[in-house]
Known about the structure:
heterohexamer, C: alpha/beta, Hypothetical Protein Ychn, Chain: A, five-stranded parallel β-sheet, 4 helices, E: alpha/beta, 31% helix, globular
Amino acid sequence: xxxxxxxxxxxxxxxxxxxxxxxxxxxxxxxxxxxxxxxxxxxxxxxxxxxxxxxxxxxxxxxxxxxxxxxxxxxxxxxxxxxxxxxxxxxxxxxxxxxxxxxxxxxxxxxxxxxxxxxx
Amino acid sequence: xxxxxxxxxxxxxxxxxxxxxxxxxxxxxxxxxxxxxxxxxxxxxxxxxxxxxxxxxxxxxxxxxxxxxxxxxxxxxxxxxxxxxxxxxxxxxxxxxxxxxxxxxxxxxxxxxxxxxxxx
Amino acid sequence: xxxxxxxxxxxxxxxxxxxxxxxxxxxxxxxxxxxxxxxxxxxxxxxxxxxxxxxxxxxxxxxxxxxxxxxxxxxxxxxxxxxxxxxxxxxxxxxxxxxxxxxxxxxxxxxxxxxxxxxxxxxxxxx
Amino acid sequence: xxxxxxxxxxxxxxxxxxxxxxxxxxxxxxxxxxxxxxxxxxxxxxxxxxxxxxxxxxxxxxxxxxxxxxxxxxxxxxxxxxxxxxxxxxxxxxxxxxxxxxxxxxxxxxxxxxxxxxxxxxxxxxx
Amino acid sequence: xxxxxxxxxxxxxxxxxxxxxxxxxxxxxxxxxxxxxxxxxxxxxxxxxxxxxxxxxxxxxxxxxxxxxxxxxxxxxxxxxxxxxxxxxxxxxxxxx
Amino acid sequence: xxxxxxxxxxxxxxxxxxxxxxxxxxxxxxxxxxxxxxxxxxxxxxxxxxxxxxxxxxxxxxxxxxxxxxxxxxxxxxxxxxxxxxxxxxxxxxxxx
Lengths: 120, 120, 127, 127, 97, 97
């Protein structure tokens, strides 16, 4: 039986709520169970990817650093919505490698290929 | 010594969160202690005032019905932001009487007269 | 038969939980096979037996107990999310002890359980 | 002397609470007279002694205890908000009993206390 | 591939409906639920009608009624049971909350 | 009467900054704090500069730095102690969260 493939749509900025961390925990569990998981970033969620962040200044354990472990967990499908970047005047510089920038239409097509879509 | 006068700025729609009810509880306590309290409605908060609502259909105790007790608690200064109504294409029909519709500039002037401003 | 998994992330104090429970009740009434309900984020508060909502307001926690008893609905609690929100995930304390505040209708689980539910269900709905 | 009252509505799991605590610490360091901190809505979770945050993360609940002990900072808990969120507001259970999950640094109060604080303080800040 | 979109928030105060609109495709179904019912009167709904047929926009009947929201005749009012059925008539679900 | 406004949310996803802008008057002080720091790059800040002097717009230094947000030179970066002082230099406070 084919395993279901999970998409997680990240929609919140990284620090003020626990959504980003809660979403990451799910992604890593699916990765460690060798279940396919793809990550999508849209809206405020794109702030999870920008460079030069430092959660330690907020007295937090900075969970964004764990993003660099995605490859280790075979999490390789990472997509960010072009329109969300543009709305926020953000460039294509990210703190992790291999992020795919897609226009909304292609972003949607990729997203909808998944059996299960969770949004955080 | 003059008592402080409290303004409560209501900014959330009535049912999906507890903010409206939490705000009302504060207003009624201030009223029952005979402390001045004024109520302001802006943004999504204006949905707390529109007619024909019925929280019982959501299996809730409908706290909006308690708004009719404001006069009993000497809560008589009730202001709603005109721009917030217009953005939502709402008329000047409300489920309580004596609501003052003010353009943002006058709404701001009234609000800022208060010693303490809480926003819910 | 259609298999459904439900993820609850809203707290019992929110009317969003009423929507989730009405959805689950409707599914059960339609003979949908609900393979499990997973409580995550603020949703874990549904398992807190100390939650005390005035009797004339909606009793979300009691509703889950009723559904569990009537339909053998599996209720899974994310342990990590729960311990951050004041549920007593102490393995030395048994769920039926006076010291535990976790309703014994709930199974303390990890996110691994969510992997299982997702694999097993035909649809996963988040509330 | 400047008198300040603070209202906390964010839960300990949120970084918004770190901001609130840093603000209170800065005020205390500047000799501001904090007449009281009032915990309302999800803020009441700061008083839950069962909240268990991993040791390498920010310990908001422990911070309040330290501030209380060092500065005699009055910490008031809204009883109604607390009982809806799983804090054990049972008058037959003493705060120091094993059955209570309310940190004894916190005074269980009602909204009447907020009226007092608002009257007494020169400024009220909400976090 | 049809996706079922559950929109639980008002577009007057948050981006959920806009983000949903960005990933909406012609066969999808949009459900206005909880505070999503306020979107019945939001301009974005006109843009959405250009992507999906108005028959594919539905509102939870008692959620709109509780909020005093007028439902235009061309938008179907559905029950929770209808929503459960739609969950299995589409391929996947996104909850916009 | 000067009011101190604490804006804790991003205008890219919610209406707090807009609502603050609606009640802002010329002597007020605006603090960008927590996710409010993302507003440093929002167009609405230009509208705000037409109401209050840019000297009256301040950002919590470590909150902007933690979020990787560039702070323009004309906007003052302040500490929590500065914020406490401002609390007593103004007449009242509104927290936009």
